[in-house]
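Open question from group meeting: does this chain pack into something compact, or does most of it stay loose? Before anyone orders reagents, we agreed to write out a predicted structure and look at it together. Recording both the input and the output here so the notebook holds the full record.
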Amino acid sequence: MNIEVDAEVVGFARRLAAAGVDVPPTRVHAMLEALDVLGAGSLRSVYWSGRVTLCASPEDVERYDRVFAAHFGRRPDRPPRRVTVPPVTRLIALPDGSGDGARDGHDADPERQRIATASRLEVLRNRDVTTLGPADRAEVGRYISALLPAAPDRVTRRLRPSPSGPVDARRTVRSMLRHGGEPVDLRRQRHGRRQRRLVFLVDVSGSMAPYAETLLRFAHAACRVRPATEVFTVGTRLTRVTRELRRRDPVAALTAASAAIDDWSGGTRLGDELKEFLDRWGQRGTARGAVVVIGSDGWERGDPALLADQMARLARLARRIVWVNPHRGYKGYSPSTGGMRAALPYVDRLVAGHSLGAMQELAALLGGREPLGRARPAREGW
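Structure tokens returned:
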């Protein structure tokens, strides 16, 4: 694509967003890729390239047609109507037990339900959450709420009784004294294990708003598994939403968190908010030895040098730093924003966060038994 076509598409996307259509950058990029294939020489190619990539609902199509005619002068003629194929009814079993599970008063075959559920999950697994309709988004939300994200345990210095391990001389001698000095039972001990704290810093700025709900739902699942989990949102201010997300019901928890966040869809000042977090919470113990998950696309309005300094502070405190960037899941992505370039030297893992599959992989990464040594600065494979 040339610069003129890029500018024209971006201008059209802005007018579409002003008309009420949700147009994230990923959809604009998809339209440009479609035009690369179809070519921008005909009005029909431009129309259908935008319609299949920028519209997510029937209401979006109506607004799209109106804005397209106003922006390009007219709308291309519609192609002749195709023959409608009768729909095929498929058995879909949802995670909450809803769906066509019974027919004519008899229960459906459990094996068919299992296959249908697996097929449905595979369809939704790799789709960007911003491209899903309300029903699919709710279904993906139920799957995310069922995840078990938790940081691995950490080994403590205190020794505890154990059936195996080194001999506990003190307890063994006491046992011998109770049995007349005979070594009847060798008592053993092993270092104990404690839950490692998990800390979430979720970017709720305008560029991350389409993905923030998914990340907060993932954080709510972590709060349910590990009560020691802490959750903060960052944008133009730092907001602690741990108390709101500790509610058992996902809908009630997300509603309470949304009411507590005053800077939703605002700007991004990652360096300032990370400094406030470290000054008020992290330095006092919240981030010490914890696994910190930062969910952001790296767009930084402040000074990238400040963000780099605060990331260096966080790296000295945290055990692991995992950065979740929704754009990481797209082919050809490179961390080119100022915020990402400043943060990368201090990040252990950079992972995607745009789909259900990405959230499942993140849960597996957090819950895995990783080596105690740091992954930094091995940046190959990011």
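Observations to bring back to the group:
Residues 153-195 form one domain.
The longest helix spans residues 209-225.
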